[in-house]
Amino acid sequence: MYWYKNLRNAGYILLLLCAVWMVAVDVQAQNSDEPSARMQRKLENELRKQLKNSDVIFSHLKHLGKIKADSAGIDIENKIIRIHLSPAFTHLPVRQQLIDEIAGQYAKYIDEQFEDYTLHLYSRGAKAETFIPPFFNSGKAVYGTARAVAAKCKYPVVQRQSLFPKGLSGRHIALWQSHGLYYEAKLDRWEWQRAGLFQTVEDLLTMSFAIPYLVPMLENAGANVFIPRERDVQPREVIIDGNGSTGNSEIIVVNDGSNRWQLAKGGFAAKDTLFDNENPFAKGSHYTVQSARATNARLFYVPDIAESGNYSVYVSWAQHADAIEDVDCTVSHAGGADHFGLNQKMAAGTWIYLGTYYFNKGKDFYGGRIEISAQNSTKGTVSIDAVRFGGGMGNVARSAGDTVVQRLLSAKSDTVPPLYKKNWQLSGKPRYMEAARYYLQYAGMPDTAVYSHNKGMDDYRDDITARGEWVNYLTGAVHPADSLQTKGLGIPVDLSFAFHTDAGVTQCDSVVGTLAIYSSGRNNGSFTDGTSKLKSRDLADIVQTQIVDDVCMLYNKKWTRRAMWDKLYSEAWRPNTPAMLLELLSHQNMADMRYGLLPQFRFDVSRAIYKGIVRYLEGSDAIVQPLPPTHLAIERKEGKTVRITWKPASDPLEPSAEAASYKVYIRKENKGFGSGILCDEPVLELELDEWQTCYDVKVTAVNDGGESFATETLSVALLPANCPAVLIVNAFTRTSAPPFFTADSTAAGIAWWNEHGVPAGIDYGMTGFQYDFDRRSAWLDDDSPGFGASHADMEGKPVRGNTFDFAATHGKAFRNAGYSFVSVSRDAFENRHFDASGYKAVDIIFGEERGTSSYKQPECKQFRVFSDGMIDAIERVIKAEGNILVSGAYIGTDGVENRDEKAIAFAKKSLGFAWRTNHADNRGEVKPTAEAASLFPALISYNAGYRSDCYTVESPDAIEPDGEKSVRIFRYAGNSRSAGVAFTGKKHKAVTLGFPIETVIDKEQLNGLVKGCMVFFEEEQMQ
Fold it and tell me: How many whole angstroms separate alpha carbon 273 and alpha carbon 524?
C-alpha cells in the first residue's frame, strides 16, 4: 500500500503544480489585458458623464413616454459608440433622418476624444434602423424576407369584373369598426360598450367612417374586405335557402341531362332566434353539381323584396375537396347585372359579401336574382347554399345565466335577481348595431374557437376576443390550445385593421390626436408563417403617418401624432397576420369631436387610411385611386341625345391619383344604376331610350389603382322637341358638422338648437341631442357620462343630409308640369364659359347651403349661397332674359351673417327680396297669399321634423318683398311670416322661396308648386 500512497501524493503534487501554473497564466493574461480593459471602463465612464444631461434631446416628446439613453457602450476596436435608448423610442416614427438627427444631437455632448468614433443607436435590443418600415427605408436597413408582404392571391374569394394592377386586386383585408351593442348579463340588458357623448357613441362613430368611406375605398381598389359586424344598414332581410325562404322567395333549379343538382347534408338552416352555441350553418343542407365545359345546369335564387331599396347581397357555399376556384355567379338587380367568380376552395360555410344593389319591391326574375352556373372548364364540384339580401334585425338571444362575470365599471351588485335568470332577450335593433360576437355566431363561426371563450358568461370580453380570433379562423387555425385543430376558411388575409376612437381625453380645448397600437410580442416575435411581427409595426407606422400628414395638411397643422404602442391589446396580438389598432381621436374630447362629426373629415381620414394600407401592401408601386370628377353637366343635343361632360379632379396630396378613364353610370326612372359605361375622355353623348322618362347620371374616375367615388347625381328628362326646357342647377354642395359653442370655461358643446349640421348622404351614427353642457360634470358610469352626455332617442334612425341627388326630385316636378329639363353642377354653372341661355327658367337648388368656416382657415367661408361666382352666373342668365327660381333655407341668412353687402344688394336688385329672420318656422307649412292663391296649392308642407326619407329644415328663412316690382306669394302658416317672393324685372322674372323645394314631401303639392312658378314665368303679373 505504501507505493500507492506515494503515487497518490505525487498526483496531488502534480495537480497542485498545474493549478499554480494555470493561475500564473491567468494572472499574466489579466495583466496583459488590464490596460485595454481599464481603457474601456475609463472611456465608457467618461462617455456616461458626457451624456448625463442628454435626455433634454427628447424633452419635446414627453407625450410619447420617457425617451432617454438607458446605457452606452464603446467598441474600441471598431471605433463605435452604442447608445441604447429606452423602449419609448420606438413610439416614434423612426426614419433614417430622425436617427441621424438624434445621433447628431448626441454628438454635441461628446468631446473631441471620440471624434473618430461612429455613433449607433439601439432600442429594445435592436439597431434603430430596424424600426424603419421598408416603405420608408433609405437602403441602409436590411430586412430580408421577414418583413416582406405576401404576394397577391391569383384567385381571391370574390373575383370582380374590374382589376386594378397597382391597387388592391387579389388582396383580402379584415377590418372592423370597434364595438357594438352587447348583452350585459350583470344588468340583464343590451347596452353600448362606450358612453353616448357629443350626439354619438364610439360603437357607431367608427362605423360612420368605415362603412360609407373606408370599406368602399378599399373595395374600389379591388380588395375583398371582411367585416365581423353586419355592414348593411338595411333592417329588412330576405333569406333564400333550400331549407326555407322568406315570403315567396324561391329557388329555380335548372338541370342539364345527367348534370343534375343534388341536395347534400351540411349547410345553412334559417332560425328566427339563435340561442347559446347554435350554429345556423350546421344543421341545413346545400346544393351541389359537377361542373362541365358545356352545360346549362344552373340555379336561380329569386327574392321576394318587401320594400324597394338598397340591399347587400351575400352568398354561401359548402366545403368540397374538389371545389372550383372560379364558379360563375351573376347578380341581376334593378339597374342591370354584375358578374363574379367565386373561389369555392376557401371560405365555405359563412356569408360572403358580393355587393349592394337596388331591388324593386316584389319578385322580378329579370331585375332581381342570383344565378349560379355549373359551366366551367375545370372539373370539380360547384356548390351553393343560402343567399341573403339585406342586413336584417339582430336574432341572437342572450340571457343572464346562473353564473355571470362582473365587468369592470358595471353595476356593483354581485347578484342577479332570480326573476331575470334565463330571461332570453333579443336586442330589438338592426343587426348592424350589434357587436361582432353576435354577427359571428350568425355567420357560422365556431363558438369556443371564436366568439364564446368565456362560455357565454361575459359577452363584453367575448366580443373583444372574437374579433382577433375571427381573423385567424378566416385564415386557418385559431389561437387557443384546445382549438388548434379547428380548420379555418383558408382565406389568405393580408392584414387586419381595428378602428377605434378612444385615444384619451383632456379638459381643455386641445386635440388629443391619433394613436396607433400593434404587438410584436409572443411567439418569439414571429407570426405562424415565420415572418416578423414587426410587419404590424410597419403597417401601424405607415397608416398613422399618412393620417397625421393628411390631417395636418388639410385641417390642423398641429394635429397630434401620439405614440405607436407595442402592447398586448387583444385586437393587436391575436391575429396571425399583420394587425394594427387605430385610436383615431378621442370621442370623449370636444376638440377632437369638432372634427369627428365633420363629413369631409371622415372622407379624408378614411382616404388616408386607405392610402396607408395600399402603400403598406403595394409599396412604392401603389397608385392611389382618383378623386371624384367635378363640373358635371348634362346638355341637350338633337332629338333624344344628350351630351354629358365633366372634368377630372386633381389631388394636391397625391400625384399618382390621376384619372386614366371614366365610368358613366345611368339610372332609369324607378330603376337602379347600371354597371357603367367606360369612357376614355371626359365626355359622353348618349341617346335616351324614351321620351318623358327621367334618367339620372353620375360619373367616376378610374386608374390602375382603383375607381373613385361618384360625382353628385344629375338628371335629365326630354319631352318632344317643341316643349320648352328648364335648367336645374345643383348648388347645394354643403356638408358640415353641427355647430359647436364655447360660452365660457364651464359651458360648451353642440348648439343643435341653431342647426343640426348637414350629413353627407345618410348618417347612422347619431344617438340624440346633447343635454349636458357643463364641463365640470364628471363621468360616473356610462349611464351618467357627464360633460357631453346625449340623448338616445335617435339610435338606429337614419339621419338624412345632403344626398346630392335633388336634381331628380326637382326635375320630375318640371317633367310633370310639361317641361324638358337638364341639370348641371354648381361649379360647371359658375364657369364663365357655361352657356345657360335659351332655357325657360333656371332652377337653382340651394337646400341648406350656408357659409361655413374652413377648419384650417376659419376666416375662409365655404358653401356661400350668393358667392361672386354664383352672382356672375345668375346675372348672365338675367342678361339672356332667363327666369330664375331659387329656394333654400339660408338664402337670406347667409348674406346677412357674413355681412356681405354685395350679396344683399344682389338679392334686392335681381331677385327682389330682403332677409327678415331665420328660424322663421318650425311647423313645416306654408300658405299662398291672396295675390298668389290662384297659382299654388292651398297648403304646402315641407319637412321641418324628422323623416327617414328627407333631411330636416330646422331653420328656414323669412324673406320680404323689396321693391315695387316684388310681391309676397307665401307665408308660413304657423306665424304668417313671409316665406316666398315673386319679382318682375325688366326682362326676367324670379321666384325666391325661404324653404327648400326638395323637402316638400307630397308629390302633388310639389308638382303644384313648380307648376305655379312656371305659370308665373309665362303668364301672370302679380301686383
Answer: 43
Q: Compute the half-sphere exposure of residue 300: CA atoms within 13 Å on the CB side of its CA.
A: 17
Average pLDDT over residues 923-928: 98
Residue 1021's pLDDT band, with cuts at 50, 70 and 90, is low
Q: Which residues on neighbouring strands pair with residue 497, listed in sequence order?
A: 175, 580
Q: Judge residue 654's burial from the number of C-beta atoms within 10 Å of its C-beta, 0-12 exposed, 13-18 middle, 19 or more buried.
A: middle
Using 50, 70 and 90 to split pLDDT, how confident is the model at 407? very low
Q: What is the 3-state secondary structure (H, E, C) of 695-760?
A: EEEEEEEEECCEECCCCCCEEEECCCCCCCEEEEEECCCCCECCCEEECCCCEEEECCCCCCCECE
Work out the burial of residue 282: count CB atoms within 10 Å of its CB; fewer than 13 is exposed, 13-18 middle, 19 or more buried. middle
Q: How many CB atoms lie within 10 A of CB 522?
A: 13
Statement: the pTM of the whole predicted model exceeds 0.90: yes
SS3 888: strand
Among 29-38, 235-244, 320-329, the range scoring the smallest mean pLDDT is 29-38
- In 372-397, which positions are buried (b, 16+ CB within 10 angstroms) versus exposed (e)? bbbbbeeebbbbbbbbbbbbbbbbbb
Q: How many CB atoms lie within 10 A of CB 1?
A: 5
Partners of 336 in the beta sheet? 333
Out of 97-106, 130-139, 274-283, 1000-1009, pick the least confident: 130-139
Candidates 177, 89, 215; CA nearest to 537 is 89
CA 667 vs. chain centroid, Å, equals 25
Question: How confident is residue 721, by pLDDT bands cut at 50, 70 and 90?
Answer: confident
Specify whether the CB–CB gap between 200 and 790 falls below 8 A: yes
What are the grid coordinates assigned to 256, written together?
A: 342539364
- Give Rg (Cα) of the chain: 34
- Residue 226: helix, strand or coil by DSSP? strand
Query: Residue 135 contacts by C-beta under 8 Å, 6 or more apart in sequence?
Result: 538, 542, 615, 616, 619, 620
Query: What is the band of 29 on the pLDDT scale with cuts at 50, 70, 90?
Result: very low
Q: What are the backbone angles phi and psi of residue 318, rounded to the nearest 5°?
A: -110, 165
Residues 132 and 89: beta-carbon distance below 8 Å: no
**Nearest by Cα to 561 from 961, 1002, 69, 60:** 60
Average pLDDT score over residue span 693-715: 98
DSSP class of residue 256?
B
Q: CA 271, 272, 275, 277 torsion: positive or negative? A: positive
pLDDT band at 142 (very low <50, low <70, confident <90, very high): low
Mean pLDDT of the chain: 92
- Count of Cβ atoms closer than 10 Å to residue 896 Cβ: 18
Report DSSP state, residue 131. G
The Cα 916–Cα 907 span in angstroms is 13
Conformational region of residue 349, where left means phi above 0, alpha means psi within -120 to 50, and beta covers everything else? left
C-alpha 473/C-alpha 575 separation (Å) is 9
According to DSSP, the β-strands at 118-123 and 80-85 are parallel
The SS3 of residue 968 is strand
256-259: which pairs have CB atoms within 8 A and are 24 or more residues apart? 256/292, 256/295, 256/296, 256/297, 256/374, 257/295, 259/289, 259/290, 259/292, 259/295, 259/297, 259/374
Q: Which of 906, 932, 907 is nearest to 1009 (CA)?
A: 932
Contact call for residues 518 and 566 (beta carbons, < 8 A): yes
* 25-39, 54-68, 480-494, 595-609: which is most confident: 595-609
The rounded distance, in Å, linking the Cα atoms of 609 and 177 is: 13
Q: What is the per-residue pLDDT across 671-682, written as a single tens digit (0 to 9) for each?
A: 999 999 999 999
